[in-house]
Specification:
mainly beta, 3 domains, five-stranded antiparallel beta sheet, 22 strands, about 5% helix, elongated
């Protein structure tokens, strides 16, 4: 078998530039073989035939995105090859051009905001007022969400926040069984993600594997793979309190040490007010099982004690196929 002729038909070459679809081009080649049983795959593999990803002559960013081979009408040894070029291509198409093996292609990471809320004990609030005036705007500061006596408000306030969700799509040969154990897990150490060409570091405790999509196998270029999709939700830190240099990990729940009863001599004892009657809502505790004592003064933010609840397991996200 020998390719006798492979030449471009110059009259059929075209290049179109538009404001909405960028640059598009077409090139058509005539190919003649001496073998009536020649196959189309051999024609596409011929050295003079443009390959996917080749640029249109005279351009720097108009890439060959498809090739079509058809036999001539007159005989079995003539072929016509049409190559289409485009400048506006998706990242997925670019990855296919750069790497024919789907398993070796880079992961695709898409970012989107998600409106959520966080319980906040410390908020940006103003002084108390009876009649509003413009001067009130100058009294805003970060402080404990409490009444004028320093007693924290209950129920807690939900503050709207934005969580960022990174949806990572990565082709893998097989899905490891251990990956299901990462569902709802929080990152135990820092890890990195791609943010549209920039590598960003996600600090320990900020990310949670919010969702896993594991579709059926696909085959491309003779290679079988699965396109695994991972949704990673990233929470912001809360604001620092007075004296803090670091905030708790955002997926942990911060609880105020408070209650309505104390324990003495292995017995529960109701906390009573000045009237001798049991109190009707929890009061702050001192971290040792007793109500905070302030000798009549307002409760200070530094008097409050907290503990953390960690509802999510911890896993090392560096083990996930994120790149």
């Amino acid at each position: 078998m020998t390719i006798q002729l492979f030449t471009e038909h110059w009259k059929e070459r075209s290049l179109t530039n538009t404001s909405t679809r960028g640059t598009q081009g077409n090139r058509i080649y005539q190919c003649v073989s001496d073998d009536p049983y020649e196959n189309e795959i051999t024609i596409l593999a011929y050295g003079s035939c443009p390959q996917l990803g080749d640029v249109f002559p005279g351009t720097s960013d108009c890439y060959c995105v498809s090739r079509n081979v058809r036999r001539g009408d007159a005989n079995r040894v003539e072929f016509w090859v049409t190559c289409a070029y485009e400048s506006q291509i998706s990242q997925a198409t670019q990855n296919q051009i750069d790497e024919p093996n789907p398993i070796y292609r880079n992961a695709i990471v898409e970012w989107s905001p998600r409106r959520s809320s966080m319980i906040r004990r410390r908020v940006k609030r103003s002084d108390c007022y009876n009649t509003y005036s413009a001067a009130i705007e100058g009294t805003f500061s970060m402080r404990l969400d409490a009444n004028s006596a320093g007693d924290p408000h209950e129920p807690l306030m939900d503050i709207p926040v934005t969580e960022w969700v990174a949806t990572v799509s990565k082709n893998v040969a097989t899905i490891p069984t251990w990956i299901t154990d990462y569902q709802d897990a929080v990152n135990s150490v820092a890890f990195s993600l791609d943010f549209y060409g920039t590598t960003v570091t996600i600090e320990k405790g900020r990310a949670c594997l919010d969702g896993l999509v594991m579709p059926l196998q696909m085959t491309e270029n003779g290679i079988t793979y699965v396109r695994l999709q991972m949704q990673i939700a990233i929470k912001p830190y809360r604001d620092l309190r007075s004296g803090e240099t670091i905030a708790p990990e955002p997926w942990d729940i911060e609880r105020l040490d408070a209650g309505m009863r104390t324990r003495s001599n292995s017995k529960w004892k109701a906390i009573t007010g000045d009237d001798g009657l049991p109190i009707t809502h929890p009061v702050p505790f001192n971290g040792s099982g007793a109500a905070v004592s302030t000798s009549g003064s307002a409760i200070a933010e530094t008097d409050l004690k907290y503990y953390l609840v960690a509802p999510n397991k911890r896993r090392d996200f560096n083990n996930l196929p994120l790149w």
